[in-house]
Predict the structure.
Amino acid sequence: MKGRDLGELAVRNLREALLRNSLTTLGIGVGVASLVAMLSLGVGLQNLASERLARSGLFNAIFVTPRTNFEGYNRDQQGQAPPPTGESRPLDEAARRDLATLPNVTEVYPDIRFPTEIHYNGNPYATIVAGVPASGSSDSAFDGMKGRFFSSPSADEAILQIDLARQLSKQSDSLIGGEISLRYAQREPLPAEPGSGKSAADAPAGFSIVPHEERLHIVGIVETEPEGGFGAFGRGRLLIPLAVAEKLRATQTSDLRDLLRDSPVQRTYESLTVRVTGASQVQAAENAIKALGFAAYSLLDATRSLRLVFAVFDLLLGIFGSLALIVASLGIINTLVMAILERRREIGVLKALGAADSDVRRLFFVEAGAMGLLGGVFGVVLGWLIGRGINLGTRIYLARQNLPAVSVASVPLWMILAAIAFSIAVSLAAGIYPASRAAQLNPIEALRYE
């Protein structure tokens, strides 16, 4: 029997029992819709997490520390420290320049944060200052911020974290455009003794700490600190341009450690952040940094566990979503078995006219596949609409909470094709028993059937 004839017979048979076949197809569609809706939720949440992390700049960032710091971050799964790949060296300005020359590195900057006291309207407030690089303007933490980002990398401007802004004023929005006074401890090298004839290079080891004050113009307010830093003792609540933070020469916790070194005048960094062109270059850059004699850590190491969690989450959602489709396959079996009873004479006539058992089997397979295809297409559309409804409801809820809108459900092309293919496969599997039973009918007994 030709494929065209099989198709025509299948379409005719589906039309004869239109209501029953439509309900069976609807059941398949509902099963596919539940599968698509659940998987779209898992994929959407994974995309949301990946997008937020990627926009925070953490996926293409490597945190570098001296090898003596944070040794636990460089242990393998058995808890053994890996063998050193380079001679340990201090994390100073020379090291910063060397890291900047590595392939695919776009910028290298220190994590500068220090305690300070700010004065606003004559009242003092203790807080933590953090330097933000110019590239931080693309950080997701600044989405929906009040005010604006820094006008230039060297501008004497500040962005307040919302908790600090509320502490300064009950009407925090009114702070934008105002000024605050920043008082901090500045590090100064010790001068050479007068009349000793020594140069500045021969000055006594160490440094002095002197109070200093800087006035800053408030330009914005954010909900959270971008990135959050690595190995920092506190979260920054007052954000200033990184170039300004370096210019202030504020005393940090690493300065106490520098006093114990042979050359305390040579300042070192607590940590440096190295940014590369993309996440795919992180591992190679991390290995190169370790070869230079530093400890390195990237969040890609931690996201391996995150990807495993999402994979298990998607698997569980897929299993629960498939249950409805499997239940719908029972409807296909019931529909086709009933069709065998109603069409015994037709099957007998087909066999009497020379149709082989394989032709009858293919006929029922085509009918089952047609219901699976129609149900799959309908289910994908319904699942997509459910996903859109979830996104709409989420955005309305977040808008009422004064939060930025996000999409928590996503239906990519691969999911559409996979859902339709899975629907057809389940339908064909459900048609195995009815097709085999129809093929085994005796044509003489079928023609006698009333």
